[in-house]
Amino acid sequence: MPELSDSEASPTTYATAEKLNAYFDAMSKLQNRRSSRSVRLYVSAPPDLQRSPKWPARIERLQRHFPGAKLLKFNDLFLPYEDGWREAAPTFDGMIVFGTRRKRQGHVFLVGDVARREVIDMLRRRRPVLLHAQEFDLVPLVDCKTHDIGEARVRMKVTVPSGWNPRRRNQTLRATLRALRSDVPAVAADRAQQSQSGSNQLFSTPEMD
Fold this sequence. Notes:
It is a single chain. With 209 residues, the chain is of the alpha/beta class. The chain has helices at 6-9, 17-33, 47-50, 55-65, 74-77, 81-88, 113-124, 171-180, 196-202; strands at 40-44, 70-73, 94-98, 100-101, 108-111, 129-133, 137-140, 145-149, 155-159, 207-208. Strands 2-1-3-6-7 form a five-stranded mixed β-sheet. Helix 2 (17-33) runs parallel beside helix 8 and helix 2 (17-33) packs across helix 9 (196-202).
């Protein structure tokens, strides 16, 4: 049996090269479309986490990643929810989602039904989605494996790459941060326009388990 290279044994992304190229194009275009207004990021987290004493520190940690950005949460926007989401979603530049870990110190997280629908909507709008976990920090969803599980109450299973190291920002995360940071000026796109097939692959909905 042939030996696996370090990158194959512990990958930092599960995305194909075609999918990554489409993502880089999308992030470059998002950065170029930015106006002088603040970046608006929607933060989706389980209610128990938002009630936790640790929640303010988690938000502060996110704010350091996105200086000047507005971090908007469920209670800031949606009363009632359905009408509020329809009005607010088009104004978001991206989304950060917190999942529930399936096993202690594992790489697999569950995203609840409502957050799952929000994630899918953001992907359809060609907006980046990042998973935030305590030890992994920010992980672009494009780098993860995603599957829908359940029937009556469908949730999203998100698997972070086994080689993910928060101290070594990969190219995907760097491109996402450039696109979403208010203090980074827009630059001319340096890639050819993405193909329609690449765009569809990048923003496809999760597979079913």
